[in-house]
């Protein structure tokens, strides 16, 4: 079963790469010898070498079927707090490594699922969902008025919350 999902994942990556290659062709006409860049659209800079899902629906499906927890980052491109968190997240080696154990999704828009905004629609906010598709509202940051917000200085707390999301998984399955 492992090999099968690996193959389908690989095929998915090829399809994604092909789709992006069409757009990329337009931009850099200058230097054709440059190495092809990794597709960065889905990561939006949160970890270009990680595999990011495109939609909330796809992320839920993959969490359920891979038995991996899902980490959702709500952010906005023009929000300085989102930008600051993104920078430390992307540069944090341990977080980037640990993130490989998650299904990953970053969103610049809200979904219709109210469970993703337990205490409001603010950015940046990070929520975890386990493979039974339960939002782990109990995994929170340090601010009582915005439970799922993280500042750049909270990056180690976010890291330990990621570890917690993985640990809870093992004890509850």
TrEMBL record:
GO molecular function annotation: dystroglycan binding
| Keyword list, A-Z | Endoplasmic reticulum, Secreted, Signal
Q: Where in the cell is it found?
A: Endoplasmic reticulum; Secreted
Q: InterPro entries under this entry?
A: AGR/TXD, Thioredoxin-like_sf
- Source organism superkingdom: Eukaryota
Q: Looking at the keywords, is Endoplasmic reticulum present?
A: yes
CDD domains found in the cross-reference section = AGR
Tell me the SUPFAM superfamilies matching this sequence: Thioredoxin-like (SSF52833)
What range does the record give for the signal peptide?
Answer: 1-21
- What are the record's GO terms for cellular component? endoplasmic reticulum; extracellular region
The answer to whether UniProt assigns keyword NAD to this entry is: no
Family label: Belongs to the AGR family.
Protein name (database record): AGR2 protein
Q: Which organism is it from?
A: Daphoenositta chrysoptera
> What high-level taxonomic lineage is stated for the organism?
Eukaryota, Metazoa, Chordata, Craniata, Vertebrata
Instruction: Give the encoding gene's name.
Output: Agr2
